Amino acid sequence: MALGISYKRLEKRTGYDAIIIGSGLGSLTTGAIMAKEGKKVLLLEKHYVPGGFTHVFKRKEYEWDVGIHYVGDVHIEYTFLRVLFDYISDCNLKWKEMDEVYDRVVIGGKRYDFKAGKDNYVQMLYENFPSEEAAIDQYMELVRQCTAQNKKFFKERAFPPLIQKLFGSFFTDKYFEFSDKTTKEVLDGITNNQELKDVLAGQYGDYGLPPAQSSFAVHALVNKHYLKGGAFPIGGCERIADTIIPVIESAGGAVAIRAGVEKILVKNGTAYGVQMEDGSTLEAPIIISGAGYLNTMGRFLEPEVQKQIGFELEKSPAGPSISHVCLYIGLKHDLRELGIRSTNYWVYGGNDHDRTVKEYLEDPSKPFPITYISFPSLKDPEWENRYPGKSTIEMITLAPFEWFSEWKDDRWKHRGEAYEAYKEQFSQRLLQELYKQFPQLEGKIDYYELSTPLSTAHFVNYENGEIYGLDHSPKRFRMKELRPRTPIKNLYLTGQDIATCGIGGALISGLLTSAHVLNGLFLTEKIIKRVEQMREKQKTIA
Hints:
By secondary structure, this protein is of the alpha/beta class.
């Protein structure tokens, strides 16, 4: 059961060391790390449940995760992502590794199984493309070289401004050699085999941009992130917030829900508080926003403050990432008895990802360029305890916000028959895609519900319903604004915009922001040491 207290019932509204806007993973991580240093932090969440994209929602006899479908590296204790999760959850967040085939890419009816382990991945590529071994080896080496620069690139973002100015280029120049190139440019440079390029880019849905638009830096990061396989939180995705919030509360902090922020209060170039949607105000010496870069600078700051710091929304080098529709499906059947496993499916409408996306965006009646199919109930070993005899499926495809914009000013659940009919068109198309891959499911669906970009805008407060914050184009990685410290004194940013998209990016952003706020140049080393001690203590108790 998700934690948090209604803002109306929040008794303590003063005396906090920091106020954090939002309760997504970046905010939760920042709050927990600060709590570990004895800081009292107040998180303000507009939604009625905390967690951002880590929360779940429930209908009838089912529940679904809204943003986490699988996470790489966390099922292996020595990886830093696992170390950081253990730190902010007091080792109470547990993970279950997915089946060996964690992703299955389907192109033109042909299946490519992505098995856990780098050697398995490379062997799959060799077997399907025996004449392309040199290109495959070159690709893997480029991924290695690019991701080897990640630590230096993100470390630069944790440095104080003076060190960044003096030594920043030493940490970033090599990274820019990769991030300045699109994924397509890199793939075109190693092979002319379109089928191979389509398979290598087969996880582009994890960052939302097809090869000609995405930076190779984010592609390489995602590819490496899943080489060891995928994992899922034991007990469901709400366990993430449920295990982190007590850490924040233990230091005297709190997480308030139904707590919408209207604006950030700034005086003489210094942030000192927030004004809530109900007109009340809260003050603290530090203000941190996990609501996204464009939201924070474009919506929470007064126009005169924006002018003072030179922010112009329309001139941002990177715009909002792609939005989507998601079909949430419930069944009164055990999927395993129907021959289905926890493997994710990436189903493509044809070869050449860039071409199919372009055609679809120009004409929505064209085949979906990408359909993602996930089976969350099969990923959580405790699911059967909560929902015996039930199963869930999620399906996602691209859908620009503009296709739904005529209903953007209507209230949730009151958008009318035309909106519901439009949603039903997407639902039926997605179900047909499901039956193509799993004909045994036809006639067995008990419940389904479609979310749209308007749903994302309403519940997660992204204005255009984007799921990955700013798009991950080459220009994004050159944006010097995307770092924790802002031009406004005592105002900081956290969340996926200052790192990269997804759970890993949001988690790391919390570390980066905490390093700035706490002046913790050696924070990483401290965290690693403390987690070692925590794990040893647990072993002793066991």
